[in-house]
């Protein structure tokens, strides 16, 4: 495998006696890779980003950029020397400078005369050349964010760090800006780390995701891996809706459950906790048969798909179907798995 651009191991940081807020964090980011740190508020994402940037100092662990040690308890390379670009939630553009001046300002290392030409070229790449003479308050949120991105990538940093860059935008603009920013980063061959608490954003924006909880990484994988093959209950629940159930496994990849026999994604033994996504279950209409049938207790119609809430043999299930499977509340159904359930790791 090609050497990673960024390598982090055992990174640990505490602010006070209450224990580490970043605890033994380790991951790699490849060249041209977009990586996301995803987790709930307060789990340590921003602190991890600030440690990479050099705005905080760690008490244990190491950060390497292109094999250069930039952060450890003994080493703390000046943030400017790390060659990192930043994009924050509040854009942080200088209000008294035009878009072009904002971008040119980031090119302090470049000969003064060449700055406007280079700045214009980068604004062009982010589709903002038309607005180059506008002041930040004459631009929409999405446009300001694209100028902020142009400013971050203009000096050709080794890595771009983005902290909740889209959360100030409304839903429609957020989607389109996200797509554009991803395309710009990919076209420029940049590596980036996105910090977000929004799972949909991480799933659609990143090549790989690290799911963080309580200062630690619970799982690293592609969007498909973390969504469809969560390793822990936290990852299963944080990445979207899911159905959890316990079962006794007998060393095979089949378990007997109240749904009947269910396939699991690996051989297991003993009491196990499993997760199955709502879209991996389906419903079949049936005649009422006492406790053997389920009943639809609720439905959420969302146009292209429908989510049903089902009570089946005393357990509640969420089942997600396309809009051709129509049931009414109180109808009798049975719940059937379409895909194997995922066996979760359980903490001892
Ligand atoms: N300068 C600081 N001094 C003391 N505690 C801090 C400091 N910065 C962060 N913390 C604490 O560290 C923990 C992790 O914060 P951090 O900002 O890294 O989390 P986060 O996952 O980015 O959350 P959010 O999405 O809310 O920003 C929190 O409990 C926070 O209160």
Short synopsis of the structure:
With 348 residues, the chain is of the alpha+beta class.
Provide a descriptive summary of the structure in words.
By secondary structure, the protein is an alpha+beta fold. The protein folds into 2 domains: 6-235, 3-Layer(aba) Sandwich (Rossmann fold); 241-344, OB fold (Dihydrolipoamide Acetyltransferase, E2P). It is built from 8 helices and 20 strands. The strands form 5 sheets. A 6-stranded mixed sheet has the order 6-7-8-3-9-10, with helices on both faces. The chain has a 5-stranded antiparallel sheet with strand order 15-19-16-17-18, with no helix packed on it. The longest helix is centred in the middle third of the chain and has 17 residues, at 171-187. It starts with 5 loop residues before the first strand and ends with a strand. The model has no long low-confidence stretch (mean pLDDT 91). Bound molecules: adenosine-5'-triphosphate. Adenosine-5'-triphosphate (ATP) is lined by residues 15, 21, 39, 41-47, 197.
Please outline the helices and strands:
Blueprint: E1 6-14, E2 20-29, E3 34-38, H1 45-53, E4 60-65, E5 68-71, E6 84-88, H2 99-105, H3 115-125, H4 141-153, E7 159-163, H5 171-187, E8 192-196, H6 199-205, E9 208-213, E10 216-221, H7 223-228, H8 233-238, E11 243-250, E12 254-257, E13 260-263, E14 269-276, E15 281-285, E16 294-301, E17 305-312, E18 315-322, E19 332-337, E20 342-344
Parallel strand pairs: 3-8, 3-9, 6-7, 7-8
Antiparallel strand pairs: 1-2, 1-4, 4-5, 9-10, 11-14, 12-13, 14-20, 15-19, 16-17, 16-19, 17-18
Helix pairs in contact: 2-3, 2-4, 3-4, 4-5
């Amino acid at each position: 495998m090609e050497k990673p651009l960024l390598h982090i191991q055992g990174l640990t940081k505490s602010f006070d006696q209450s224990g580490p807020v970043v605890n033994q964090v380790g991951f790699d980011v490849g060249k041209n890779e977009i990586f996301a740190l995803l987790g709930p508020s307060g789990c340590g994402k921003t602190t991890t980003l600030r440690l990479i940037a050099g705005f905080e100092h760690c008490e244990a662990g190491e950060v390497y950029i292109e094999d250069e040690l930039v952060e450890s308890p003994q080493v703390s390379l000046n943030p400017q020397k790390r060659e990192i670009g930043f994009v924050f939630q509040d854009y942080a553009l200088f209000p008294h400078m035009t878009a072009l001046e904002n971008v040119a300002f980031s090119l302090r290392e470049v000969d003064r005369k060449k700055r406007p030409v280079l700045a214009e070229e980068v604004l062009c790449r982010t589709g903002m050349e038309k607005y180059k003479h506008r002041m930040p308050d004459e631009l929409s949120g999405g446009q300001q964010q694209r100028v902020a991105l142009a400013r971050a990538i203009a000096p050709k940093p080794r890595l771009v760090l983005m902290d909740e860059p889209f959360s100030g935008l409304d839903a429609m603009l957020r989607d389109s800006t996200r797509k554009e920013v991803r395309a710009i980063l990919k076209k420029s061959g940049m590596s980036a780390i996105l910090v977000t608490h929004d799972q949909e954003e991480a799933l659609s924006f990143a090549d790989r995701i690290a799911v963080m909880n309580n200062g630690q990484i619970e799982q690293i994988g592609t969007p498909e891996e973390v969504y469809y093959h969560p390793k822990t209950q936290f990852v299963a629940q944080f990445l979207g809706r899911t159905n959890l159930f316990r079962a006794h496994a007998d060393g095979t990849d089949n378990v007997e459950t109240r749904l009947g026999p269910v396939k699991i994604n690996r051989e297991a033994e003993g009491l196990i906790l499993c997760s199955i996504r709502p879209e991996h279950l389906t419903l079949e209409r049936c005649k009422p048969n006492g406790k053997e049938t389920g009943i639809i207790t609720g439905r959420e119609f969302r146009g292209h798909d429908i989510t049903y809430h089902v009570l089946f043999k005393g357990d509640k299930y969420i089942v997600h179907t396309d809009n051709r499977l129509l049931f009414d509340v109180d109808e009798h159904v049975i719940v059937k798995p379409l895909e194997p359930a995922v066996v979760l790791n359980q903490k001892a």
